[in-house]
Amino acid sequence: MIFVRRPQTDPYFNLAAEEFLLKNSQEDLLMLWQNESSVVVGKHQNVVAEVNLNFVQDNHIPVIRRISGGGTVYHDRGNINLTVIQRAGNQKYPVDFKKFASPVITFLEQFGLEVDFKGKNNLLVNGKKISGNSAHVFKNSVLHHGTLLFNTNLDILEKAIHPRNNNIFDKSIKSIRASVVNIADLLDKPVTKDEFLENLGQFLKNYYSVTTENPLTETEQQAIQKLAGEKYSSWNWNFGYSPKYTLRQEKDTEYGRFQVTMTVIEGRIASVELIFEGKKLEKTEQQLLGQKHDKNELRYILANNRFSDIIIQTLF
After folding, report:
1. Could you say which architecture CATH assigns to the domain 2-238?
2. Is 2-238's fold the same as 245-314's?
3. pTM, to two decimals
4. Span 245-314: which CATH code?
């Protein structure tokens, strides 16, 4: 196995790096990496139902879709990401979350922590989540990756990721909300994040019998950057890939009651019925059809509508 050094903290680059290495490397790989503040959603999730878009947009926090399933997570420099890519050979079921989590549990037990593997893919201490994991299979290769909350800003985490909007109806994969805690707050003796990361890296390199340590080559970095720009930075992947969903909502305002029933397919408004005090707003409906279900775009489309702010609030 090769340990790939990844000092990059650009979340678009880092998510692209996983896909590129999974599909283009023939070696087994181990990686530890970190992102700047970002929200990462599972491949089959609906961003609008999982993310507090007002908060992340106001705070310039990017939302990025990964290639693996599972729920929505928050990343920052206090969160450590672990990735293992292995060639599965002829195994019929190469995804094994418990096997992937086993060395992490053993490592954490060295700090006196009692770690429980719960559900399909989570690690808990004292009933609170410290790690979530997901996987993706490509041909005969499997990518396992997971988070470790070391000293993440939990206040921002809670504000960026909110419970599912009950007014949205879809068949997307839903995040299972859980109480979370930072590993740093569980340790008897203070350990810096850098010390923890260095010790974790050394432990995992021994566990996986790592024989080589390599940085990404210049050619690999260029290819990853290209993938990040074309896919992981794109609206079509991050928002347009969301499953079909329907929103039904009403809002009482100083002007009266606004009601909306809207269906969104591939991120665009496929049908919409907008009613104000019992009257259909047909002209506004025509303006909305085919547009991205995106606040900034709709604000531009409805710039000349005196009810634009209220309509946009009703649409989200």
Report:
1. 2-Layer Sandwich (3.30)
2. no
3. 0.91
4. 3.30.390.50
> Which tokens is 104 given?
């992490």
Domain ranges of the chain: 2-238, 245-314
Look at strands 115-118 and 79-87 and give their pairing: unpaired
The tens-digit pLDDT sequence of the chain (316 residues) is 999 989 999 999 999 999 999 999 999 999 999 999 999 999 999 999 899 988 999 999 999 999 999 999 999 999 999 999 998 766 666 788 999 999 999 999 999 999 999 988 899 999 999 999 999 999 889 999 999 999 999 999 999 997 556 687 776 656 666 789 999 999 999 999 999 999 999 999 999 999 899 999 999 999 999 999 999 999 999 999 999 999 999 999 888 999 999 999 999 999 999 999 999 999 999 999 999 999 999 999 999 998 999 999 899 8
DSSP string of 214-277, one letter each residue? EEPPHHHHHHHHHHIIIIIT-HHHHTTTSPPEEEEEEEEETTEEEEEEEEEETTEEEEEEEEET
